[in-house]
Amino acid sequence: MCLAVPMKVISLEGPRAVVEQGGARRTVHVGLLEEVNAGDYVLVHAGYAIARVDEDEARRTLELVEQLAQSFDSPSTESTLSEAEGLGVNAQDRPLDEARDNHP
User: 10 and 16 in contact (C-beta within 8 Å)?
Assistant: First the structure.
């Protein structure tokens, strides 16, 4: 699964920006976007800003990410994963090469 995280642009220098979320700062490439300014929110994936978003959308997305993270910490998730493994469902059972080769 891929996930793009909303981050606030702190500063810009050429095609790079310093962005921040939750106290973590990163330098990302912003060359994929036409215009980015300090104070904007961008979706960051694999070191690239891939889209601009407004502050409300950034906040809502971060709330959903937090809910998702909390769901992985809950006992019900652990039991669901154990039940799936008991049924023989395991991500290791199907290597990526096999999945790629069987894709139409």
Answer: no
Tokens for 53, please give them: 């978003």
- Domain layout of the chain by residue ranges: 5-88
Beta strands of 1-104 (E only): which ranges? 5-13, 16-21, 24-29, 41-45, 48-53
CATH fold for the domain made of 5-88: SH3 type barrels. (2.30.30)
Q: In this predicted model, what pLDDT tens digit does every residue of 13-72 receive, in sequence order?
A: 999 999 999 899 999 999 999 999 999 999 999 999 999 999 999 999 889 888 888 887
Rounded Cα distance between 70 and 64, Å, is 10
Residue 54 contacts residue 42 (beta carbons within 8 Å) = no
Give the Cα separation of 32 and 52 in Å (integer). 10
